[in-house]
Amino acid sequence: MEKIMFMPNDSAEPTAFYVLEQTRIGGASYILVTDSEEGDAQCLILKEKEGTDEESLYEIVEDEVELMAVSKVFEELLEDVGIEM
Known about the structure:
By secondary structure, the chain is of the alpha+beta class. The protein has one domain (2-77). It is built from one helix and five strands; from the N terminus they run βββββα. The chain has a five-stranded antiparallel β-sheet with strand order 1-2-3-4-5, with helices on one face. The longest helix has 14 residues, at 64-77. The protein is globular and about 35 Å long. The two termini are 23 Å apart. This is DUF1292 domain-containing protein. InterPro entries: UPF0473.
């Protein structure tokens, strides 16, 4: 599982996440990340911001309709993973 570092806007310290899966829907890139490699963990669905060149910038998907649609895609891609809202 790939480990990536994020720099939240409100923090000076980077946060580590593990990428479970990535997908592209309607031209937008999404990643499903978790805070732990094993067991039950908190997950976030992140959407890549447009217009980024050097490093990828992601934001948390907060829109409920978009979140539900993308979570269904990730559940299909990861057959053994259940995503609870």
